[in-house]
Amino acid sequence: MESNLNRMINQTLRHPLSGQLSKYTNVMKGWQYRWFTVDAKTGYLSYYLCDSSAVGDDIAPSPHVLANTPRGQVQLAGAVVYPSDEDSRTFSIACASGDTLKLRASDARARQEWVDGLRAVVESHTQAMDISNSSPLPARELLAASDAMVAARQALFLTEQCNASLARAIENIDCASFSPTDPDLLLLKAISTASTQCLHQCLGLLQRHQEINQPQLEEVTPPSISLALQ
Questions:
Q1: pLDDT at 129 exceeding the cut of 70
Q2: Count of domains for the chain
Q3: Which of 16, 125, 174, 210 could form a disulfide with 77 if both were Cys (CB 3.0 to 4.6 A apart)?
Q4: Are residues 84 and 127 in the same domain?
């Protein structure tokens, strides 16, 4: 009997996952529409700029836009896909490279379709990566190390959310004893941000160490693109 994972993967191969999503860029630019496509065979998630006339509608960009280099691209192998608690439309992808994409679908049903489809591709390519990589570690220890990396990425994302909540709380503080420009509060905000960035760098070093000590996938990784600015 066909497993749920294989059924989902076969469905993604027959009907490639693609569509318009909102991508959180940064505090200044906020949410921006991008057209996303998933290549189930290679495990890459790519996104493109949307035509200005199609923004807000689930209409694919013109063929010449899709023929160009994508605005951004990430490998899904080793990633973690999880829905957000803030609403019924938002979800995030924590990539093995350390990049995190925060995305928003049109409604709860669309979000679930994206999450299910992406998780199937992630699991398929993560399994392929584990099989193709030889490791001196016993299988049990290798699995434990992989689980630890996933847990670390999830914990880091929660830390980022806490840091963002702290920053908003300080900026919106309304108290006679304190103001948003209070030196102690500004120091607390700076330390929180610096600590989060340090954790990002540590996780990146662990990820690079893991990649160096294991054979790479056959696919050629595309040039690094700063996802936060795309």
A1: no
A2: 2
A3: 125
A4: yes
